[in-house]
Write a sequence for this structure.
């Protein structure tokens, strides 16, 4: 099983690209648990929600891992939960990073906010490119600091799709 993570700032194409990868290669896609949580609770999140959101994300990921697909595509993982917790609440439960580092991820595709038009959807909160660039940089720094495999993806939508498909093909060929 190969595990591919789409990560980065909001409105950079993660969900769309995850669906495109699944159409092309099959496998399983694990979505963003926080979206489910917000839809279910019908309110904004707070710091005390972060553990439940993280556990939900892990439960979805672990259930998918248990199915042992050839390709597991994660629309996000705990890195986003950690960074959003710090961004919104200036705090984050320490155990999230331990849980994240305890799992194997074969490739991270870090999607750039440059060239990606922000789309409001009622849950997103960083319309300014400068905010999304800070989030992107925080993702990159964490991936580098923890020696996680990653490739940056940018450009227009067609270019992003081509790059992501090429990365998935290379991963599956290993």
């Amino acid at each position: 099983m190969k595990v591919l993570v789409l990560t980065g700032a909001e409105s950079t194409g993660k969900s769309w690209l995850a669906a495109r990868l699944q159409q092309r290669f099959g496998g399983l896609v694990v979505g963003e648990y926080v979206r489910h949580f917000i839809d279910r609770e019908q309110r904004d999140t707070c710091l005390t929600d972060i553990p439940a959101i993280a556990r939900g994300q892990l439960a979805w990921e672990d259930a998918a891992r248990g199915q042992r697909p050839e390709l597991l595509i994660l629309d996000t993982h705990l890195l986003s939960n950690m960074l959003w917790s710090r961004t919104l609440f200036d705090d984050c439960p320490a155990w999230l990073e331990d849980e994240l580092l305890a799992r194997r991820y074969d490739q991270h595709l870090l999607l750039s906010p440059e060239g990606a038009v922000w789309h409001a959807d009622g849950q997103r909160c960083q319309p300014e490119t400068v905010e999304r660039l800070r989030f992107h940089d925080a993702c990159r720094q964490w991936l580098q600091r923890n020696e996680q495999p990653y490739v940056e993806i940018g450009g227009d939508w067609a270019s992003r799709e081509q790059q992501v498909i090429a990365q998935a093909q290379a991963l599956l060929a290993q």
Summary: The chain has a mean pLDDT of 92. The helical segments are 14-25, 33-41, 50-66, 78-89, 95-101, 129-145, 157-173. The chain has seven helices and five strands. The CA atoms of residues 54 and 140 lie 20 Å apart.
